[in-house]
Amino acid sequence: MYNILIVDDDKDIVAALKIYLAAEQYNTFEAYTGKEALELLRREKIHLVLMDVMMPEMDGISALSRLREENNVPVILLTAKSEDSDKIMGLNIGADDYVTKPFNPVELLARVRSQLRRYMKLGGSRSAEGAGVLQVGPFELDDKTKMLTQDGEPVALTPTEYKIMKLLMERPGEVLSPKEIYRLVWKDEPYGADSTVAVHIRHLREKLEINPAEPRYLKVVWAQGYKLAEG
To answer: pTM of the prediction?
Structure first.
C-alpha cells in the first residue's frame, strides 16, 4: 500500500482528498503547514506528496525547496492559480507535477497514479532487473541502482530529472524536441511542453554544469530541441 502525504491548511480539502485516495486503497497522512510536512517526512515512509502552495508558517514553495535537499519523493503541487508563471515556479524548485484548484478528482487520481508508477519504476523501492549502465562523457547512469554520477561523484536528481537524463543519455548527440521529450517522459500529450521541459532542463543544468548560462553538456539547438554532448 502506498503512503501519500496531504499538505494543506484547508481541513475541508484535506478531508476530501483523504476520501478520494482511500477509495483507491491509498494510505494517507496529513499535515497543515510546510513545517509539519517536513517533520512527518522524516518519520514516515512516504511515496508521494500532495502539497498546497499557500500555507501559514512555511508555505509550499519553501517546504518543497527544503524537502528537495534530502528527499526525492514525487511532489504534486496544489495551487489556486492557473497562470503559467505559478506552474513554472513550482516545477523550477523541484515539483514533479501540479493540479490547479478547484481540481477534478478523476484528473487528480490519474496524476497520482502516474507519478507513483514513475517513482517505483525509477527505484523508489525496487530496481529493474537486468538494467544496464549508460556512460556519456563524464556521466555514468546505473539504471539498477538509479544513480547518476558525474566524474565519479553522485548527483541527486528528482524522478523527472532522472527520466530526462536517462532519455538523453540513451540518445547522445541526438536532438530531441520538447514535445518528444514530454511524450516520452510524462507519457502524455505535450500541451505546454516547451515551458515545462525548459524548466527541468534548466534545473538539470544547475546541477550538472559549471556555468549553466554556457552549458557544456546539455545543449540547446535553436528552434529544434535539446541534446546531450560529451563535452
So the answer is: 0.59
